[in-house]
Fold:
Amino acid sequence: MDYIFSMHSLEQMKHRNISKETVLSILRNPDEIKIENGKKIYQSVVTEVEKKYLFRIFVNIQNRPNKIITVYKTSNIKKYYEGKIW
Structure:
């Protein structure tokens, strides 16, 4: 599937030191996908420097190609993630 990055998503990725390769890898093989308000949220738990983070990628699926709206990572995994991580 093809995706385009919004300016906001690119700024957030730069600010949070998240690479395009990481984002595209999660989009290809997410641990979990949620749908909220016409947007898909692709989520994966990733270990960085011995700490687990939940990466969340918000995609507007009504755009063609799909538009990546924002990207972030959080250590508050249990708040958003329903899968098993431990």
